[in-house]
Design brief:
The complex is a heterodimer. Chain A is mostly helical. Chain A is built from 23 helices and two strands. In chain A, strand 1 and strand 2 form a beta hairpin. The longest helix of chain A is centred in the middle third of the chain and has 29 residues. The longest helix of chain B has 30 residues. The radius of gyration of chain B is 15 Å and the shape is rod-shaped. Classes of the chains: A mainly alpha, B mainly alpha. Chains A and B meet through helix 10, helix 12, helix 13, helix 15 and helix 16 of A and helix 1 of B.
Chain lengths: 509, 34
């Protein structure tokens, strides 16, 4: 009996904090409601009113059922609150999609929500070109908030720092500490994002009007595209994605914004504090600039050999743009999905897969292995080679720069390698599942890399007609990839542990 | 917490650095296909 009571104490504690996160996320549904009412989209506004009531009802119920003082907040609670709240929010945030009638099923709605939350950018929503302003706003808010994190959003609303705040924050895959308390750190993350939101939207708004969009339309296109670019999301208001704009200047602006968006929030803060050298000294940015340059050159050489694009500008706009979009895990594309399979050739697709898997920076909005882990593992390998070749008996210390000088320890290399292996396993299973359903191996691998690395580029596999099991696997892969496995392993461990204890209790042992 | 002048300088540094990197990639693109 004591075991069951203990489990309930855990559940009540978790329930309280998940309820709080759900209420905070539900509150942002007021933005699409205001947008819908402004444009006279009454049916859409009603969909959101229904959805916000369901979400608030769920959040308040969870808080009433929970009790934050039932138990001391431990690391496992933080990890479980983060991972479980994402699942509950996926269902709640899918309601307006489902009510809009623009998705084939509730599963498709959940797919799009998880794609938004995880800043992947793959979409199963149909008739994108005629979507209401309200629903478009919701899609892009999901990806913008998801980039920062739902837990980060909730913690911003904290009146005072609680004991479990940092543990929940880490559970969402972020570990950078800009201030000694988490509340100030999450607020700073939002300040950085909102300052860039203002600048980016303004730049794209002006550019949109220059290329012929009407002022209101240009503003919303600018806002939506910026939200996606900053959060390395990949959603766009039109089904043709970036191809719709046919503008070199629009593409250049989005490249700049999505590369900056893929940087670590700690890096932004350091530069804003006057430490500009951090951008060149940081192991992550070094790793990103090296891998992005190598993969870009390889893609350009390969595409020019194929002769697909007629000149240097076209090669840059199609080749380098899509490569950088893949590398920063954004997922904006200015070619049709099937063009990757039909025009880019096997080597071009392979380079994109590698870029998608490497990804952006840790503690940013980007996905993939992350530059930090690639850099740490690479330095670890170099250190091991040097150690094995060295004849000296003394122990040499290897260092790297990540916000400050840090000593390269074996534990760091091991944990970085472990996460990379987890990504590769997810990618391999996704590839195998895709090829099982009859997709060509390279196409299956491309889509698996896209979901695992939270990229959003598609080669044509993702569609409302794809098998249900593949949709479910892609949702799981996006979720695991975004939360970087550890907190989900904690959730699975907690659930299995609870079941095991109950079984032992009922078997009388 | 944040100094407005430092923030503006930081923003310019970030945008400038990334724009420079994109420019280098464009030049590399020109050099490679020659």
């Amino acid at each position: 009996m004591r075991v069951v009571k203990k489990e309930f104490k855990d559940l009540r504690l978790i329930s309280h904090y998940i309820g709080f996160i759900v209420i905070c996320t539900a509150a942002i549904m007021t933005i699409p409601i205001i947008t819908s009412i402004s444009f006279g989209e009454w049916n859409v506004a009603l969909d959101f009113v229904i959805s916000i009531n369901i979400a608030l009802g769920t959040g308040i119920s969870l808080m009433l059922l929970g009790d934050k003082s039932s138990k001391k907040f431990e690391w496992k609670h933080g990890l479980i609150v983060s991972s479980l709240s994402w699942v509950i929010l996926m269902f709640l945030c899918a309601v307006p999609y489902f009510l809009s009638g623009k998705v084939g099923s509730f599963l498709d709605a959940c797919f799009d929500v998880m794609s938004g939350f995880t800043t992947t950018g793959l979409a199963l929503t149909q008739d994108l070109d005629h979507l209401s302003y309200g629903l478009n706003m919701w899609r892009h808010i999901l990806t913008f908030v998801g980039g920062q994190g739902m837990v980060v959003l909730a913690l911003t609303f904290l009146v005072k720092d609680t004991v479990g705040a940092y543990k929940m924050y880490v559970g969402e895959g972020k570990d950078i500490e800009l201030f000694p308390n988490v509340k100030s750190t999450t607020r700073m993350i939002w300040i950085i994002s909102m300052v860039y939101l203002g600048i980016g939207t303004f730049a794209l708004w002006i550019n949109g009007m220059i290329i012929g969009l009407k002022p209101v339309s240009s503003f919303f296109h600018g806002l939506f595209i910026y939200m996606s670019a900053w959060s390395t999301g990949g959603f766009a208001p039109m089904s043709q994605n970036m191809l719709y704009y046919h503008s070199f200047s629009y593409e250049i602006l989005t490249i700049i914004f999505f590369i900056i968006g893929s940087f670590n929030f700690g890096l932004h803060y350091a530069i804003w504090q006057g430490n500009k050298k951090e951008i060149v000294k940081n192991i992550e940015t070094q790793s990103f600039f090296i891998t992005a340059t190598i993969t870009s050159v390889l893609v350009v050489v390969w595409l020019s050999k194929l002769g697909v694009y007629p000149n240097a500008v076209a090669l840059f706009r199609k080749g380098v743009y899509n490569l950088l979009s893949a590398h920063t895990t954004t997922g904006f594309a200015n070619v049709y999905a099937r063009q990757f399979a039909l025009e880019w050739g096997d080597f071009g697709v392979l380079i994109l897969i590698i870029a998608m898997l490497i990804g952006g920076s840790a503690c940013s909005t980007a996905g993939g292995f992350k530059g930090l882990r690639v850099g740490v593992v690479f330095k670890g390998i170099i250190a091991d080679i040097r150690k094995s070749l060295s004849t000296e008996r003394r122990v040499k210390v290897y260092k790297f720069h990540y916000m400050k000088e840090q000593i390269l320890e074996d534990g760091m290399v091991k944990s970085a390698a472990f996460i990379i292996i987890c990504y590769i396993v997810m990618f391999t299973i996704g590839t195998a599942l895709g090829s099982y359903y009859g997709y060509p191996l390279l196409s299956a691998a491309f889509e698996a890399a896209s979901v695992t690395g939270n990229v959003g580029l598609s080669i044509g596999v993702t569609s409302p007609a794809m098998p249900v099991l593949l949709k479910i696997y892609y949702i799981i892969a996006m979720y695991l990839g975004r939360l970087e496995f550890v907190s989900i392993f904690a959730l699975i461990g907690f659930m299995l542990g609870g079941v095991k204890k109950l079984c032992l209790r009922y078997s009388g042992r | 917490m944040l100094n407005r002048k430092k923030v503006i300088n930081g923003l310019l540094a970030e945008v400038g650095f990334v724009a420079g990197f994109v420019g280098i990639l464009f030049i590399l693109n020109l050099v490679v296909i020659r």
